[in-house]
Specification:
The protein has about 425 residues and is mostly helical. The chain has helices at about 5-15, 30-35, 55-75, 95-105, 110-115, 120-140, 145-155, 160, 165-180, 190-205, 220-225, 235-245, 265-275, 290-295, 305-320, 325-340, 365-420, and strands at about 15-20, 25, 40-45, 80-85, 90-95, 345-350, 360. Strand 6 (about 345-350) and strand 7 (about 360) form a beta hairpin.
Length: about 425
């Protein structure tokens, strides 16, 4: 039974028993049909917190009566909800009422969060709402395309939510969604159908099939789903084996040969493109004016006096109250003496762990090492002088503070005794 027309005829034939004061279960098909032909509108009252998706009653009775009336009269029958929740009756179209319920419950993040906290029971409740959503759409045509799209995006394409659902509930939700698309109840794009089909097949291949009447019991549905999937042949083979084992039925899956994308080749090509040829890297550019400055730079110090004068000028710029020129000359003389007698670095090699033997060898220092040694000595001298000057300044400030404190104490004592005399 693929269409609502067949469902309407089935309901028309089922609701034919007559009950009354003197009769019980007497067939009265002709009478029932004559009554159905006069029906233009079907209604149902909602006066509690129960919605139209909490169970399948609304789809069975309100939806069934609508389809049966349409089958009898051949005319379109409208469905309305009499909403008395606020105290005063309000007539709403079924599509308006169910849209409000979808936004406030099934698609409400707080409602979803509460269901997910309940584990498998909450996941089952979500799946039941989607199932009832399919039923009212099949009988009352009250579900719009945006609602089915929202189901896919919220519970299937959102991995954070999907991973918290039972995998069999995931299959069931996808099954209802794709069945709605197969029956032309939901109009959507090819990409959405392919994504749903892929997740459906992958979940079944990994966890096994969920044997609902709308999934593994529906051979035609599974064959239709396979036409939209873009998975590889090995996954399809696994899905087919699990399906046949669970149902003892053979499923005819046309598995197209899908070429594998050359990911490794493209990755290698990207790496080759990003590789840098060291031979093609140009040498650093040095401006002509920098070369001229290097050529005109003064030669190294050749005498103690020159070195002493340079150090003294540096100290005077940073601290005018530096030490005497004689002390600076003595420090500079020590530096130049060490330059004339280069240091011999010691190379230490250990014979082995626990041997207690160290071998040292002396090697002559290069000119660059001598220059580094002299610069290091000059820097140490400058730091020492700055430290001495800073210490002297702190002492002077401390002495001035002590003198000021004593003066204040003297004034206080003098005032105290003067007051007592008065």
């Amino acid at each position: 039974m693929e269409g609502s027309e067949g469902l309407g005829r089935y309901l028309h034939e089922s609701y034919v028993l007559h009950y009354g004061k003197s009769v019980y279960g007497v067939p009265a098909r002709d009478v029932f049909e004559e009554i159905l032909k006069t029906v233009d509108i079907v209604t149902q009252v909602r006066d509690s917190v129960w919605g139209v998706l909490d169970n399948d009653d609304v789809a069975q009775y309100l939806g069934g009566l609508k389809l049966a009336a349409q089958a009898a009269s051949g005319e379109e029958v409208q469905a309305y909800i009499i909403n008395t929740r606020t105290g005063s009756a309000r007539v709403q179209s079924f599509s308006e009422f169910v849209s409000t319920e979808l936004r406030s419950r099934l698609f409400n993040p707080k409602w979803i969060e509460g269901m997910l906290k309940e584990g498998y029971a909450g996941a089952r409740e979500i799946g039941k709402h989607v199932a009832n959503m399919f039923l009212v759409d099949a009988t009352l045509e009250g579900i719009s395309d945006w609602a089915w799209q929202k189901v896919a995006e919220t519970f299937i394409f959102d991995e954070k939510i999907r991973n918290q659902l039972d995998p069999f509930v995931v299959q069931s939700i996808i099954g209802w969604s794709l069945e709605a698309a197969r029956r032309q109840m939901w109009q959507t794009d090819q990409e959405t159908l392919s994504r749903l089909a892929n997740i459906y097949v992958q979940t079944a291949a990994q966890y096994g099939v969920v044997c609902c009447h709308h999934t593994c019991a529906n051979i035609k549905f599974n064959e239709w789903v396979a036409t939209y999937s873009t998975l590889d042949s090995s996954t399809f083979t696994r899905f087919k084996e699990i399906f046949s084992k669970a149902t003892n039925k053979e499923i005819n899956l046309e598995i197209p040969e899908k070429p594998t994308a050359p990911e490794d080749q493209s990755l290698t090509q990207n790496q080759e493109n990003n590789a840098v040829d060291e031979s093609s890297v140009p040498e650093p550019f040095v401006p002509a004016e920098n070369i001229q400055q290097l050529a005109e730079s003064p030669p190294p110090y050749t005498s103690i006096d020159q070195k002493a004068e340079q150090i003294e000028e540096t100290l005077e710029v940073e601290q005018p109250t530096s030490s005497s020129t004689g002390e600076v000359k003595e420090a500079a003389e020590d530096i130049l003496v060490k330059q004339e007698q280069p240091l011999q670095p010691r190379t230490v090699s250990t014979a082995g762990p626990g041997s207690g033997q160290d071998t040292t060898s002396d090697t002559p220092q290069t000119g660059s090492e001598q220059g580094a040694e002299s610069k290091s000595r000059a820097y140490e001298l400058e730091v020492t002088r700055k430290t001495q000057v800073s210490t002297s300044a702190r002492k002077a400030v401390s002495f001035a503070a002590i003198v000021a404190a004593l003066g204040l104490m003297a004034l206080f004592i003098k005032g105290y005794f003067t007051g007592r005399k008065l």
